[in-house]
């Protein structure tokens, strides 16, 4: 190989390697942004909401680790977790109608407290995100807000949904740990046990649309409604 051709090949390989390194670095940064935004430590007040779980604990329906695991798993797979995951996935798509999705999210809320939870957490999330991203997104319910905010990240929708659902599961499990009460080890065991369901739902919801939203968690929905009239409440939903 002639010297000029050899140097051209080396230069091309160096350029390609540099592009790959930069792409890998961008992906890593986006992954870290996602973990930060969906962390329980992100200041949106998720610790204050139980989505009706407090009512179920007061009634004695959820009273130990096994019943808490069943409750949270059903909410994730058959209730608000699935519905919000579908809305989040839809909000990440290039042709997303964010106003329509926001209206749908609120229409599907099963109680006034749930609607307030969606709106207040969405507002708090976007208040933190706007200075970070420079995008002036309007206030939206949380699931739609997360979808819109993460649309520009080079992270597959399945990955976003898995972290989102894991965060929701952690929120509800911690509510149970605090109010039943349970030990932290029991809470972590419950969360680990939900991993398979979380991954499966993330993969499914990534390919679904708003027309696929539905729920069969009537007990959880009624508990969320009745929470509004509890005499003493620790949580806001």
UniProtKB/TrEMBL annotation:
Subcellular location, record wording: Cytoplasm
Alphabetized InterPro entries for the sequence: UreF, UreF_sf
A cellular component term, taken from the record's GO annotations: cytoplasm
The keyword Manganese is assigned to this record: no
Keyword match Membrane: no
Domain of life: Bacteria
PANTHER family: UREASE ACCESSORY PROTEIN F (PTHR33620:SF1)
Assembly and interaction partners: UreD, UreF and UreG form a complex that acts as a GTP-hydrolysis-dependent molecular chaperone, activating the urease apoprotein by helping to assemble the nickel containing metallocenter of UreC. The UreE protein probably delivers the nickel.
One Gene Ontology MF term: nickel cation binding
Swiss-Prot/TrEMBL keywords: Chaperone, Cytoplasm, Nickel insertion
Source organism: Aliigemmobacter aestuarii
Family stated for the protein in its record: Belongs to the UreF family.
Name of one Pfam family that matches: UreF
Function as written in the Swiss-Prot or TrEMBL entry: Required for maturation of urease via the functional incorporation of the urease nickel metallocenter.
Name of the protein this chain belongs to: Urease accessory protein UreF
């Amino acid at each position: 190989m002639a010297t000029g051709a050899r140097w051209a090949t080396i230069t091309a390989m160096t350029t390609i390697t540099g592009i790959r390194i930069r792409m890998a670095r961008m992906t890593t940064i986006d992954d870290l942004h996602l973990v930060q935004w969906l962390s329980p430590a992100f200041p949106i007040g998720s610790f204050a909401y139980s989505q009706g779980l407090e009512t179920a604990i007061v009634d004695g329906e959820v009273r130990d680790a096994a019943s808490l695991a069943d409750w949270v798993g059903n909410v994730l797979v058959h209730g608000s977790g699935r519905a919000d995951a579908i809305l989040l996935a839809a909000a990440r798509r290039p042709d997303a109608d964010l106003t329509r999705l926001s209206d749908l999210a609120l229409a599907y809320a099963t109680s006034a407290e749930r609607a307030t939870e969606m709106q207040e957490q969405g507002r708090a999330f976007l208040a933190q995100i706007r200075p970070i991203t420079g995008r002036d997104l309007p206030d939206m319910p949380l699931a739609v807000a997360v979808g819109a905010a993460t649309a520009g990240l080079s992270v597959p929708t399945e990955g976003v949904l898995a972290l989102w659902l894991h965060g929701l599961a952690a929120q509800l499990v911690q509510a149970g740990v605090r109010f039943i009460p349970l030990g932290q080890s029991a809470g972590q065991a419950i969360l680990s046990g939900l991993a398979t369901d979380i991954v499966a739902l993330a993969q499914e919801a990534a390919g679904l649309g708003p027309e696929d939203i539905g729920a069969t968690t009537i007990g959880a929905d009624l508990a969320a409604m009745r929470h509004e009239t509890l005499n003493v409440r620790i949580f806001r939903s």
